[in-house]
From TrEMBL:
Signal peptide: none annotated. Residues 315-343 are annotated as: Disordered. It comes from Nonomuraea coxensis DSM 45129. SUPFAM superfamilies: lambda repressor-like DNA-binding domains, Periplasmic binding protein-like I. Keywords: DNA-binding, Transcription, Transcription regulation. It comes from the Bacteria. PANTHER family: HTH-TYPE TRANSCRIPTIONAL REGULATOR GALS (PTHR30146:SF109), LACI-RELATED TRANSCRIPTIONAL REPRESSOR (PTHR30146). InterPro entries: HTH_LacI, LacI/GalR-like_sensor, Lambda_DNA-bd_dom_sf, Peripla_BP_I. Residues 5-58 form the HTH lacI-type domain. The keyword Cell cycle does not apply. This is Catabolite control protein A. Residues 319-334 have a biased composition (Low complexity).
């Protein structure tokens, strides 16, 4: 029987030294380009690594976890589509956790890092409590947070700019002549809910419109909740001429309610969402939405985590991904589809 591939044959195929192959296969710090070459050569040759033996020797699992609030939310799926290939190219498997935005579950995931079932964690919590911050400070493995944490938190952090994103949408709606612009938000005790609510107030002030509590409806970040919240809002304020929705799922629920009520979009009521998920362009009418760079935030988070895993000793980094507005039929009418302004 022919011998299987060895580190010698992998080195020859990859065009790197045997020592480099050994470092990659044992999870030691190595240039990313070298990692990609070695992993590609190993896959081509059918090399099967003994993961248990390697983990015992290097104290690495070559697994990374991604913890998100809702695995069905397209914004998290956009992150996932970028996180996985970045980690896979570096030889890491991805373990997924859907926490349902339950703080206790997220804190359990953070504490379980001490069990060394993964080498690092990317987490996107909706709420950041004192318990989160205490557990992050004591984390036993590198962590990157996608979302907002206070300055001084000892982890890398990739942020959206929701306030500016809301401002882009409100400016657009105001320029179209809308003057009774309602806000349908998620819970205000969440990071995105608080930021988007504050952005709405600031954006109204900037265009000279008064803040009216009667035009604000609080629900949750799901389509059924969007339907419920918008139905309640319209029953109270039928004079609304625009809806600023805190995410695309709420906005899709709004389209459902307006369609059932015989209200034309955008002629009677213009609708804007946030996240610019795949569902926005596919809806009818197509949905104007603010992109908060979900895919880019996922990619940057994965790259920051790899830097840590490869021995990067540096101060925690804060990266903010700027928003942009994608204008579609739900505000500008049929036949209009394209990107508007950015931050």
């Amino acid at each position: 029987m022919a011998d299987g591939p060895t580190i010698n044959t992998i080195a020859a195929r990859a065009g790197v030294s045997i020592a480099s192959v050994s470092r990659v296969l044992n999870g030691l710090p190595t240039r990313q380009e070298t990692v990609r070459k070695v992993m590609a050569a190993a896959d081509e040759l059918g090399y099967v690594r003994n993961a248990v033996a390697r983990s015992l020797k290097s104290r690495r699992t070559h697994q990374v976890a991604f913890a998100m609030a809702d695995v069905g939310n397209p914004a998290y799926l956009a992150m996932l589509r970028e996180i996985q290939p970045v980690l896979k190219a570096a030889g890491y498997r991805l373990v997924l956790h859907s926490t349902d935005a339950v703080a206790a579950d997220e804190i359990d995931v953070l504490r379980s890092l001490g069990e060394r079932y993964v080498d690092g964690l990317i987490m996107s919590p909706l709420r950041v409590t004192d318990a989160h911050l205490e557990t992050l400070a004591a984390a036993r493995a590198p962590v990157v947070i996608i979302g907002q944490v206070p300055d001084g938190t000892p982890v890398d952090n990739v942020r959206a700019d929701s306030r500016t994103g809301v401002r882009l949408a409100i400016d657009h709606l105001h320029a179209l002549g809308r003057r009774r612009i309602a806000m349908v938000n998620g819970p205000l005790d969440t990071v995105p809910g608080a930021a988007r609510g504050a952005g709405y107030r600031e954006a109204l002030e900037a265009v000279g419109l008064p803040y009216d509590e009667g035009l604000v409806q609080i629900g949750d970040f799901y389509r059924p909740e969007g339907r419920r919240a918008v139905a309640e809002l319209l029953a109270r304020r039928p004079d609304v001429d625009a809806l600023m929705c805190a995410n695309d799922l709420i906005a899709l629920g709004a389209l459902d309610v307006l369609r059932d009520a015989g209200r034309r979009v955008p002629e009677d009521v213009a609708v804007a969402g946030m996240d610019d998920t795949d569902l926005a362009a596919a809806s009818w009418p197509s949905l104007t939405s603010v992109s908060l760079g979900s895919a880019e935030r996922g990619r940057v988070a994965a790259e920051l985590l790899l830097e840590r895993l490869n021995g990067g000793e540096r101060e925690p980094r804060r990266v903010t991904v700027p928003p942009r507005l994608a204008v579609r039929a739900s505000t500008a009418g049929e036949g209009h589809s394209g990107e508007g302004s950015g931050a």
